[in-house]
Amino acid sequence: DAGEPVDVGGLVEMLAPTVVSIISEKFSYDWLYRPVPETGAGSGVIIDPQGLIVTNDHVVRDAERLTVILSDGTEFTAVGWVRDATTDLAVVQIDPDRELPYAHFLSNSLGRLELVEEVVAVGNALALPGGPTWTKGVVSHLGRPIQVTGGGVLEDLIQTDAAINPGNSGGPLVNMAGQVVGINTAVAEGTENIGFAIST
Asked: In what order do the strands lie in the sheet with 65-69?
């Protein structure tokens, strides 16, 4: 069920420990065939105390190594990950030395959210150090399909005006009760304040 709204301080305290930074690394080769590392940054949300993390497929695609950084700065090398390009979702596994705090999802968010309901996007915007970035907005549309790079179509998305920036991909979109209602996935290029999240 949809929870009761909490104050902003409570929301941040509840969710901050569940949002992680994901650094992907792969290697290409220069003209002398020397390996050149290429890195990318995204976000994820812990969904299980044993270290399962949901993120976007495009955050981990082609990665040879993933580093997961918790909100307290602890770093883990991912021990495995699975991907689904069709939904742009992936699950990353780390092997933590303790039980981790995890986020709770609101099932069937398309049927539970309302237009102009307040939501918060959380993530590792621009890979800035020091913890996640928080942006607040509203639900602008429910069930939006968009075409993504490569020709695929993502269905049943939540459109929001909460700012989603590079590095936010894979982070949670949450309602004011602190429940995950979507996974941030894309922005409309050349526009302002049109972002999309994969609904639950």
From this structure: 75-77, 65-69, 19-29, 35-48, 52-55, 89-93, 80-84
- In order along the chain (200 residues), what is the average pLDDT of each group of 10 residues? 89 95 89 83 96 96 94 95 95 96 96 96 86 93 88 91 90 97 89 90
Tell me, yes or no, if 169 is annotated catalytic. yes
Q: Are 78 and 41 in contact (CB under 8 A)?
A: no
Q: Which of 24, 109, 169, 199 is catalytic?
A: 169
Decide: 169 and 42 in contact? Cβ < 8 Å. Answer: yes
Exactly one of 58, 140, 161, 199 is catalytic; name it: 58
User: Which pTM value belongs to this model?
Assistant: 0.91
Cα Rg, the chain, nearest whole Å = 16
Which among 24, 88, 109, 199 is annotated as catalytic? 88
For residue 88, indicate whether it is catalytic.
yes
58 has catalytic annotation: yes
31-76 tens-digit pLDDT = 888 878 888 999 999 999 999 999 999 999 999 999 999 999 999 9
**Rounded to an integer, what distance in angstroms lies between the CA atom of residue 97 and that of residue 120?**
30
